[in-house]
Amino acid sequence: MITKPLHTKLLYGFILLAALLLPLYVPDPYMFQVVIMSLIFAIAVLAMNLIIGFTGQASLAHAAFFGFGAYGVAIMTKAGISFWLALPAAASISALIGLIIGPPALRTRGSYFAIVTLAFGVIVWIVAGNWVQVTGGHNGIFGIPRPTPIPIPFIGAIEFFDQPAQYYLVLVFLLLTLFIMHRIVYSIFGLTFMAVRNNEPLADAVGINTFTTKLISFVIANFFAGLAGGLYAAIIGAVSPSVAAHLLTFNFLIFLILGGMASLAGPVVGAFAIPILMELLQDLGHFRMLFFGVLLVATIIYFPRGFVGAVRQLNDKIAARRQAKS
Amino acid sequence: MLSVKYLTKNFDGLVAVKELSFDIREGEILAIIGPNGAGKSTVFNLMTGTLAPTSGKVFIHEENITGLKPYQIVKKGVARTFQTTSLFDQLRVIDNMLIAYKWRTRLGFWNTLFHTPAWKSQHDQAARNALETLDFLGLADKALAFIPTLSQEEQKRLAIGIALVCKPKLLLLDEPTGGLIQEETERIALFIKKVRDQGTTVCIIEHKMQMIMGMADRIVVLNYGQKIAEGTPDEIKTNQAVIEAYLGGDVHA
Amino acid sequence: MELFLQQVFNGIMFGSTYAIVALGLTLVMGILHIPNFAHGHLYMLGGYITYLFVATLGLGYWPSLLIAIVVLGFVGIIMEAVVYRPLNEQPHINAFIAAIGALLVLESAVEVIWGPQGMRVPNPYPHTFEFLGIIMSVQRLLVIFGAILLIVLLHLFLKKTLTGTTIEAVAQNREGAMLNGINVNRVSSLTFFISSGTAAVAASFIAPIFVISPAMGAIIGMKAFIIVLLGGMGSIPGAIIGGYFLGLIESLGGGYVSAAYKDVIAFGALIVIFSIKPTGLFGKKEG
Ligand SMILES: Nc1ncnc2c1ncn2[C@@H]1O[C@H](COP(=O)(O)OP(=O)(O)OP(=O)(O)O)[C@@H](O)[C@H]1O
Ligand SMILES: [Mg+2]
């Protein structure tokens, strides 16, 4: 409903171009892998943004749903099911579990909801580490097949054995996620999420079933978390309980908060920039998390809308000053 | 059109509303007055499902709506405002209106995802309606403004506006002029009359006696959660029980 | 029967730890309405401070415990002032996120200094003996009786001293207390001091029995949070009963059902109870 100014559109166009050409200039395979991971995380963080940033419900079970997707794809593709079937199936299972756990969890509010979802996440993590027959226990599952090649008549097939192909595969899913999130956020339907976040009693009083609204947001978020997890499993080729651990949820949260809640650019910026930053800061060892912890606290206090929010604020200020001058 | 029957509300020990019954008639402006803490806001909360009554019932056109949730009661044509101005203050004026219009539409997930023809027409319909209502509120030029940039009076107007956007049959206003100065109060009063003249029944809680006496068709007076008088403004002015309840109070504030 | 008694004994010991940790958290959550999710990490840090003074600097066990209390108390004060106070007026969820930031800081700081692997604090009272077929050690009894003593002292402090009653006044009515000239910021600092200090006591008690590790804060923090939410924010009896109860069911569940899934009990119970009663067992209002 808000049309972006021209220079913003140009910026997005440029970023898209840079993304499309990335395999040409990425320095080394290791960094390439980090970038591919970042894009997968971006999908998960966009999903987290929907429930936390836009709907205001601190779901801390996000990695658990990422885990459902990852284990789902791992188990199904190892059983011989095509990746192209397994991925939507795993994401749907993740959404379905969200639909089941959502109603009891969403009866609670605020910190209560945060802790209930976190508790659920911990259970999933413990089960993933102990249910050896299904999840492979602490060792996890490895040797997960790469995404099934897509046959193209007369030409051959698109295979996903090399990094560029995997990168484009993930990029397509990220763009798809962004497209869907954009549709949701810039619509009256999406406004109801923000209404619930902003003023729940009023939302209720103007005819919004706040419970259902939260549940829908939760289920959509979990679908995309599962989707991201499924991609992760197929690209990395191995999963272990750490993909469902609350530490991963906290990582997602760092990406989200530092990048910027309640915007579409924020999660992508956060999920892209921070893993790369983490790699660059690798020599710092455990100091890294110390650094990010401090950054997280400082951001939530001084820039609750993260990097993107701060840039927007700056932009608005400059615009206001210009207007004042003319 | 709406009747309240033997409504009682207990807040652990404190009886905020007791055995209260009254009717709201089609097309009138009914005022509910009473000293601070008399239970007026609680009555609204009971009528709109925000609170569940301890006992008693609420009917609209003979239909029992007791126990329905607020979002269900709006759909019966009863809209309300809150005593402390309540808006979606992180969003723009137009967004506030669109949110309030949402339940009238079928702008759900799938329609939104695929931008179906139904989505397009309903989306346009919602936008048109929102703008029309903003025009009626005198806020058309503020459509894209963020809430904190609005004046106190504009915020009060908008709060009424988001209740009005779905054209309710009955509008419940909880102190719509609280905190406003004389001049602003008069403008809002005029506006409320305009709403009634357009065919919306109004029930208003207010402390400002002069305003109430001038606009209400009938008045219900509460004290300690009980109805102590009901009648036309002239009857209320001379009612002994009312004068006593307000003794030392602010009858002519 | 002996297994049963042994599990009950262990359960009471774990329960003592849970009760103290939850007690500190319930003060902060009930009085200041701060979801201090990093509380378990304060406990963890308490264990390491004890380790530092006992094992590295060779101080006695009891002086080290006292130092740990004071150090943690000040860490708590700083945390409140730096992390939570600026977020007073912000939505609850922001404080929660800040808490996650704070716990990451605490955990990685400990990892930086002591490394990620477990450490063992020398046991001052390693003597074990058998009683009714239960194997006990003096240190384990110390955990149990020390906890009781601490709870009694805290109760006396809150009920009988002027400072304690001031804290209670703020808990009951923050605005009212402010109007009465109570310095709410000072009460906040004090509450954090007590809360973190008691966490340090719990950690110092248990550190000689088990290995301490940077990761141990997360799970006990979550459990304390769960106990507080179920027992009612700010409810001291709720925290105590909840703590012992959780210790017992975990110990019995771990002994008879499955050790691997022991932690699932607490988290599962939380979800089940909250889905039936969204504001906790004794909770009135949500936070
Ligand atoms: N949710 C609640 N819980 C407990 N007590 C309440 C609650 N809501 C209202 N009360 C009490 O019920 C009584 C009536 O309150 P109510 O807000 O209905 O009064 P009012 O007539 O609207 O007053 P005012 O003119 O000040 O707005 C008051 O004593 C109030 O403290
Ligand atoms: Mg009122």
TrEMBL record, chain A:
<feature type="transmembrane region" description="Helical">
    <location>
        <begin position="9"/>
        <end position="26"/>
    </location>
</feature>
<keyword id="KW-0812">Transmembrane</keyword>
<dbReference type="InterPro" id="IPR001851">
    <property type="entry name" value="ABC_transp_permease"/>
</dbReference>
<protein>
    <submittedName>
        <fullName>Branched-chain amino acid ABC transporter permease</fullName>
    </submittedName>
</protein>
<keyword id="KW-1133">Transmembrane helix</keyword>
<dbReference type="GO" id="GO:0015658">
    <property type="term" value="F:branched-chain amino acid transmembrane transporter activity"/>
</dbReference>
<dbReference type="Pfam" id="PF02653">
    <property type="entry name" value="BPD_transp_2"/>
</dbReference>
<feature type="transmembrane region" description="Helical">
    <location>
        <begin position="289"/>
        <end position="307"/>
    </location>
</feature>
<feature type="transmembrane region" description="Helical">
    <location>
        <begin position="32"/>
        <end position="52"/>
    </location>
</feature>
<feature type="transmembrane region" description="Helical">
    <location>
        <begin position="113"/>
        <end position="132"/>
    </location>
</feature>
<feature type="transmembrane region" description="Helical">
    <location>
        <begin position="252"/>
        <end position="277"/>
    </location>
</feature>
<feature type="transmembrane region" description="Helical">
    <location>
        <begin position="59"/>
        <end position="77"/>
    </location>
</feature>
<feature type="transmembrane region" description="Helical">
    <location>
        <begin position="83"/>
        <end position="101"/>
    </location>
</feature>
<feature type="transmembrane region" description="Helical">
    <location>
        <begin position="167"/>
        <end position="194"/>
    </location>
</feature>
<keyword id="KW-0472">Membrane</keyword>
TrEMBL record, chain B:
<dbReference type="GO" id="GO:0005886">
    <property type="term" value="C:plasma membrane"/>
</dbReference>
<dbReference type="InterPro" id="IPR032823">
    <property type="entry name" value="BCA_ABC_TP_C"/>
</dbReference>
<protein>
    <submittedName>
        <fullName>ABC transporter ATP-binding protein</fullName>
    </submittedName>
</protein>
<dbReference type="GO" id="GO:0005524">
    <property type="term" value="F:ATP binding"/>
</dbReference>
<dbReference type="GO" id="GO:0015192">
    <property type="term" value="F:L-phenylalanine transmembrane transporter activity"/>
</dbReference>
<dbReference type="GO" id="GO:1903805">
    <property type="term" value="P:L-valine import across plasma membrane"/>
</dbReference>
<dbReference type="GO" id="GO:0005304">
    <property type="term" value="F:L-valine transmembrane transporter activity"/>
</dbReference>
<dbReference type="GO" id="GO:0042941">
    <property type="term" value="P:D-alanine transmembrane transport"/>
</dbReference>
<dbReference type="InterPro" id="IPR003439">
    <property type="entry name" value="ABC_transporter-like_ATP-bd"/>
</dbReference>
<dbReference type="GO" id="GO:0015808">
    <property type="term" value="P:L-alanine transport"/>
</dbReference>
<feature type="domain" description="ABC transporter">
    <location>
        <begin position="2"/>
        <end position="249"/>
    </location>
</feature>
<keyword id="KW-0813">Transport</keyword>
<dbReference type="Pfam" id="PF12399">
    <property type="entry name" value="BCA_ABC_TP_C"/>
</dbReference>
<dbReference type="InterPro" id="IPR003593">
    <property type="entry name" value="AAA+_ATPase"/>
</dbReference>
<dbReference type="GO" id="GO:0016887">
    <property type="term" value="F:ATP hydrolysis activity"/>
</dbReference>
From TrEMBL, chain C:
<dbReference type="InterPro" id="IPR052157">
    <property type="entry name" value="BCAA_transport_permease"/>
</dbReference>
<feature type="transmembrane region" description="Helical">
    <location>
        <begin position="134"/>
        <end position="158"/>
    </location>
</feature>
<dbReference type="InterPro" id="IPR001851">
    <property type="entry name" value="ABC_transp_permease"/>
</dbReference>
<feature type="transmembrane region" description="Helical">
    <location>
        <begin position="95"/>
        <end position="114"/>
    </location>
</feature>
<keyword id="KW-1003">Cell membrane</keyword>
<dbReference type="GO" id="GO:0005886">
    <property type="term" value="C:plasma membrane"/>
</dbReference>
<comment type="similarity">
    <text>Belongs to the binding-protein-dependent transport system permease family. LivHM subfamily.</text>
</comment>
<protein>
    <submittedName>
        <fullName>Branched-chain amino acid ABC transporter permease</fullName>
    </submittedName>
</protein>
<feature type="transmembrane region" description="Helical">
    <location>
        <begin position="190"/>
        <end position="212"/>
    </location>
</feature>
<keyword id="KW-0813">Transport</keyword>
<keyword id="KW-0472">Membrane</keyword>
<feature type="transmembrane region" description="Helical">
    <location>
        <begin position="41"/>
        <end position="59"/>
    </location>
</feature>
<keyword id="KW-0812">Transmembrane</keyword>
<keyword id="KW-0029">Amino-acid transport</keyword>
<feature type="transmembrane region" description="Helical">
    <location>
        <begin position="12"/>
        <end position="34"/>
    </location>
</feature>
